[in-house]
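Hi V.,

You were right to ask for the full record rather than a summary. Here it is.
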Amino acid sequence: MPFIFGTFVSSFVGLLIALPLSLGTAVYLTELAPGWVRQPAISMIEMLAAIPSVVFGLWGMRVLVPWLQDGPYPLLEKYLVFCQYSAGRYPGGACCRPRSSSPL
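Predicted structure:
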């Protein structure tokens, strides 16, 4: 049951972030942006939409999580000890922990 609740919570947080951002971007690009901004932005958005979400997840797991473990996480652990989300040492799970000093 906690996994189902966690799925709903993470989906809701994702919608809270993505919905205003995507609607704001769409309104800006269609109504307000000049042509020299509109065309490159639309092309970039279409290229990002063509990449499967699994690729973004793998990139996050192999590149972003190790960077966060060395950068912001120790600082957040130090100052946000009261927060339940900072309770674990490696928020990405065992699959994201660096096993050796190799870059990948």
